[in-house]
Write a structure and sequence with these properties.
The chain is of the alpha/beta class. It folds into 2 domains: 273 residues, TIM Barrel (Alpha-Beta Barrel); 119 residues, GTP Cyclohydrolase I, domain 2 (2-Layer Sandwich). Helix content is 34%, strand content 20%. Bound molecules: pterin-6-yl-methyl-monophosphate.
């Protein structure tokens, strides 16, 4: 399952939970609760990004969060520190934080990237146009703009000496984005993955989710919508989600996990994300190889003239199986050679005559399964010249054949 980061705002004024955990004891208790609910990481912030929140000094910020980080790290929790200040990041890492989550991607504090580079910590580079969540929200193409910005921040982080393995990307839902931008970004998340590192998604209780609820619903009523968008993010390739209510999102992600576990790997619809490439962080869908309109003359049919004169058969095949690696290796060995498939189909059509197109389709399916990486073949056989005494367009028979039997 993807990681769930539980949000712990040790602030008097965060937008949905401000003031709840300002006391270190209450904050620690809440973190323990989130861990019990299934949080993998606790993301601790001491300064609110809410519009109009009072800026605080790094010293005040540290006074709020360091005692909490120290205790939670002592208890073995994985901690991320949500800060835009380099000195706070350094102090938090020294206190046991393993991730620095900077909502400005290192742009607010010019010392941030170098400060992280000097530690072993990971860094979250989030897309925003500054700390002000309402700032400047015009985009040509929000997905491509966010992607380009994250590439630029990644390159700045690399130049500062942070290796790629320590970089996490975040498109910054709700930060300098209109409601439609957020939905577009969620739909286009697959284009943000593949930057070389995992993607974190934080939709939790954000204003755009309010669109889904009755007017006047408050921020804490957005948890079901958060669970839904976190699940969508997971399906689009996110490696982690950052949420306030851990229980609801963990349940949603477990539902996804159970469903995925129940589906034969290779029978997933191709638009499903099937693999998170640990090495590159890029996402690969399980490819489907199709060859349509393979033509060959055959002598199949129940009528004597069909057996005598033959006719044209047209075949479409769609192949699925262990083909995902090819997209990474660029090696023909890791997929199926469609020219060889087409030749094999022709051999079957030109081979021993049978009465029924069903039998022919089945034989073609079996021939496809002789290619070692192919596990499923969908075959459609067209018989456009079938002897039918009325005008008609086409006759087809389709069959699915899988290793271990016909589907
Ligand atoms: N959102 C908030 C704060 N920090 N950090 C990351 N990486 N991604 C986010 O989307 C994000 C963030 C907004 O405030 P909140 O702490 O109340 O959710």
């Amino acid at each position: 399952m993807i990681e769930v980061w539980g949000i712990l705002n040790v602030t008097p004024d965060s937008f949905s939970d401000g003031g709840l955990f300002t006391d270190a004891g209450a904050a620690i208790a809440h973190a323990r609760r989130m861990r019990a609910q299934g949080a993998d990481v606790i993301d601790i912030g001491g300064e609110s990004t809410r519009p109009g929140a009072t800026p605080i000094t790094p010293a005040e910020e540290q006074a709020r969060i360091l005692p909490v980080i120290t205790e939670l790290a002592r208890e073995g929790m994985r901690i991320s520190v949500d800060t835009v200040h380099a000195v706070t990041a350094q102090a938090a890492v020294a206190a046991g934080a393993e991730i620095v989550n900077d909502v400005t991607g290192g742009q607010h504090d010019p010392d941030m990237l170098a400060a992280v580079a000097a530690t072993e910590a990971k860094v979250v580079l989030m897309h925003s146009r500054g700390i002000d969540v309402l700032a400047d929200i015009a985009y040509d193409d929000v997905v491509q703009d966010v992607r380009a910005h994250l590439v630029e921040r990644r390159d700045a982080a690399l130049a500062a000496g942070i290796p790629l393995e320590r970089i996490i990307f975040d498109p910054g839902f709700g930060f300098s984005k209109g409601a439609d931008d957020n939905w577009r970004l969620l739909a286009g998340l697959g284009q943000i993955t593949g930057l070389g590192g995992p993607v974190l998604v934080g939709t939790s209780r954000k204003r755009f989710l309010g669109d889904l609820l009755p007017e006047g619903a408050n921020a804490s009523e957005r948890d079901a919508a958060t669970a839904a968008t976190s699940l969508l993010a997971a399906q689009h390739g996110a490696a982690a989600v950052r949420v306030h209510d851990v229980t609801s999102t963990v349940a949603a992600l477990r539902a996804l996990e159970r469903t995925n576990g129940a589906i034969d790997e290779t029978r997933r619809p191709t638009h499903w994300i099937t693999r998170l490439d640990d090495a590159g962080g890029s996402i690969t869908t399980s490819p489907t190889v199709r060859v349509d309109g393979i033509r060959a003359r055959g002598y199949h049919g129940v009528l004597s003239e069909e057996r005598r004169d033959g006719q044209e058969f047209v075949v479409d095949v769609e192949l699925r199986g262990k083909l995902a690696n090819a997209a990474h290796t660029d090696d023909l060995e890791h997929t199926v050679n469609y020219a060889a498939v087409a030749e094999s189909v022709v051999r079957v059509v030109e081979g021993d005559p049978v009465d029924l197109i069903e039998t022919l389709a089945r034989r073609i399916g079996d021939a496809c399964l002789e290619f070692p990486l192919v596990e499923h073949a969908s075959v459609t056989v067209h018989k456009p010249s079938a002897p039918i005494p009325v005008p008609f367009g086409d006759v087809t028979v389709s069959i699915d054949v899988s290793r271990g039997g016909t589907a």
